[in-house]
Amino acid sequence: MAMTEKPAARPDNPRFSSGPCAKRPGWSLQNLTNASLGRSHRSAEGKARLLGAIEKTREILGIPDDYRIGIVPASDTGAVEMALWSLLGARGVDMLAWESFGKGWVTDVVKQLGLADVRLLEAGYGELPDLAQVDFSRDVVFTWNGTTSGVRVPDGEWIDAEREGLTICDATSAAFAQKLDWAKLDVTTYSWQKVLGGEAAHGMLILSPRAVERLESYAPPWPLPKIFRLTKGGKLIEGIFKGATINTPSMLCVEDYIDALNWADDLGGVDALIARADANTKVIADWVENTPWIDFLCAGAAIRSNTSVCLKFADPDIAAMSTEDQAAFAKKMVALLDSEAAGFDLGAYRDAPPGLRIWCGSTIEASDLEALTPWLDWAFAQAKSEL
């Protein structure tokens, strides 16, 4: 290795976790003093803060006026589960899976809901399924950005504008960092703790008019828990989409989300956030291009994530190791970086191929990534010298 000496400078913020992600630059608890603490979320003040978060979300993301936006329990997982349990079963469904979370939704649909008419379009880590094979006369469930594989769909062009079924999109590590094609999305979900660096436990559920029509015309044959119920008497519960949440939210977390939205607005909105994530990913791409021991897990630049950047070992000695030994090697690197406070939480997801995962979303500063890369080289050389 060209660099074995410990680098002199560390990232100012060494937090590169893929969730919960780094707080926005300049974040402080002092920014949350307007939180409605100790007040009912159903008070006029509480509902105003919740509705304000919904309206700001619409403004920043450019969500159409006739789409409903709701704050729901249990993070992105809760939002996706609400959609799957409430909407599926009316027609056949195509499930797209190329990483851990997409595969998890397949398990829910096949084993928990027990749907019989399910087609699985699957690809390995680092690849996409053949999108041309998707049948839009059926419902379609997919992730926009595979957080554990570093692979995203290139755009919304592959989605049929004249589709008969619904598109249900888990966009948790894409929203605010990638351009979502709202006209092609009927159900979209994400969580606050990803691109905006908000707090966990709350999810966002965004419904097109087509999704609302399905909810009001179709009742699934299975019982729905209270926190999944979006209709009453065959009609959408409109209050959910006006700040009357299903259960009690954390008003401190709501205030933190509003703070992140205001920061995004001050930057210039979603385009500015996308530009930040792209610039961050370029720092890693430039380093990978000049670093022989590492490579992207996703070979295709057009489908490579600009948030959850997943890397694999290209060094011949390490690549020749068993999966278990590669995982142990990666764990050693991650421990070295952690011990030096040079970079935290940089290991690949537990189900993914061994390697590194670096969050490059919009709350990360490019200067911190530039400071991180010499430490990655150092940790690799250190770990390899101990083999």
Overview of the structural elements:
By secondary structure, the protein is α/β, with parallel strands linked by helices. The chain has 2 domains: 34-266, Type I PLP-dependent aspartate aminotransferase-like (Major domain) (Aspartate Aminotransferase, domain 2); 269-385, Aspartate Aminotransferase, domain 1. The protein has 9 helices and 14 strands. Strands 1-9-8-7-4-2-3 form a 7-stranded mixed β-sheet, sandwiched between helices. A 3-stranded antiparallel β-sheet has the order 12-13-14. Strands 5-6 form a two-stranded antiparallel sheet. Helix 6 (270-289) packs parallel to helix 9. The longest helix is centred in the C-terminal third of the chain and has 20 residues, at 270-289. It is globular and about 65 Å long.
